[in-house]
Amino acid sequence: MFVKVCGLSTPESVRAAVESGADAIGFVLTRSPREVSPDQVRDLLTGIPAGVAAVGVFRDEAAAAAVDIARAAGLGWVQLHGDRTPGDIRAVQDAGMKVIRAITMSAGSEEFGNLGEDLLLIDAAVPGSGEAWDYASVQAKGLESRHWLLAGGLDPDNVARAAGEAGAWGVDVSSGVESSRGVKDLARIRSFVSAARLSG
Ligand SMILES: O=C(O)c1ccccc1NCC(=O)[C@H](O)[C@H](O)COP(=O)(O)O
């Protein structure tokens, strides 16, 4: 099970995620209570092993702008929320970065298609809201052969059941490992990664 912990903003939370075995860590570089600057991200990445995917999260920024900001932050991955085209995905990949394309469960069937992204993320209606949804309903979307992440309302107590119901390849969390909006809880980060790992 691939595990991503998102919305990190302190060295302690980055260390907790990496030391507990997260495959990917995410930094919100768009308007949000979790927003960090490219300079902050550069500092937070100091000493992070090369095998950990470091992801910049963007909502409606143009792909080219996301690439510029991610490059300034020293990131190798870009997560794009909002309406995206195959050209957007290619623009990021041509810049030497990998792409997570984020959609919501209510997206149209064409958005569930493969636009060339490295990973697809299927989220709640409002990203980063901690809102749960009917995870089993994604089984109808024909994603069995795809590399995709389940997100939205996951936490250490429900991640194993949710990933099983959805048949998820990987999981992503932010709100469920916080003590209050934007404040990560280190023990919950460790519990989440360990529960997700045990589930598959
Ligand atoms: O976290 C935010 O505030 C945010 C703002 C704008 C776009 C994306 C954002 N977050 C994305 C994520 O953190 C995850 O991909 C995912 O949505 C986490 O959801 P949850 O665990 O329900 O907080």
TrEMBL record:
Named in its record, the pathway it takes part in is: Amino-acid biosynthesis; L-tryptophan biosynthesis; L-tryptophan from chorismate: step 3/5
Domain of life, per UniProt, equals Bacteria
**Catalysed reactions, as listed in the record:** N-(5-phospho-beta-D-ribosyl)anthranilate = 1-(2-carboxyphenylamino)-1-deoxy-D-ribulose 5-phosphate
Which InterPro entries does the entry link to?
A: Aldolase_TIM (IPR013785), PRAI_dom (IPR001240), RibuloseP-bd_barrel (IPR011060), TrpF_fam (IPR044643)
Q: Any signal peptide, and if so, which residues?
A: none
Question: What is this protein's name?
Answer: N-(5'-phosphoribosyl)anthranilate isomerase
Reported EC number(s) for this entry are: 5.3.1.24
Q: Could you say which enzyme class this protein belongs to?
A: isomerase
- Keywords assigned: Amino-acid biosynthesis, Aromatic amino acid biosynthesis, Isomerase, Tryptophan biosynthesis
Identify the species of origin: Arthrobacter oryzae
- HAMAP family from the xrefs? PRAI
CDD domains for the chain: PRAI
Q: What is the lineage of its organism?
A: Bacteria, Bacillati, Actinomycetota, Actinomycetes, Micrococcales
Q: Indicate the segments forming the N-(5'phosphoribosyl) anthranilate isomerase (PRAI) domain, all copies.
A: 3-194
One GO biological process term: L-tryptophan biosynthetic process
Q: Which GO terms describe its molecular function?
A: phosphoribosylanthranilate isomerase activity
One matching Pfam family: PRAI
Record-stated family: Belongs to the TrpF family.
